[in-house]
Amino acid sequence: MKMNLVKLSILLIVSQLAYSSPLPNEESEGQSVISQGLLDGFLTESTADIIVKFSGNAEALEEVKNKKYANRGERLNTISTTLQAHAQKSQENVARFLNGKDPQVPFTSYWSTNTIFIRNASPDLINELAGFPEVTEIRENSIVATIIQK
Length: 150
Known about the structure:
Shape: globular
Number of helices: 5
Structural class: alpha+beta
């Protein structure tokens, strides 16, 4: 059972990465970081569950890639610590902004994918988030159904 949960978690992370298509942020020739699917969803809904994506983890892992490690455990620990530090730094301004809103906006931070999940985000909040230069994409959260055979 526990192994199936691990496999499911890995599958969900991989599928999230595979189905995400980052858009340039507004500093790149005025193009929006808000996905078209999210914008289209506001034609019928007043809020949306969203994923706010920040700069990729590849840059953060460059320093880890070239180091020598005594064992696999040490390498995995270094990768985990590096990704957590990278997410904390890149998400810091947005997290402070969300915590400072009145009422406070609850969110969940995911260091492994360097994303923040926000439930029931309004169009105004999404537009405010799009103004942060560290935000690379804002898209609607999608649920991927999987079948696990036993």
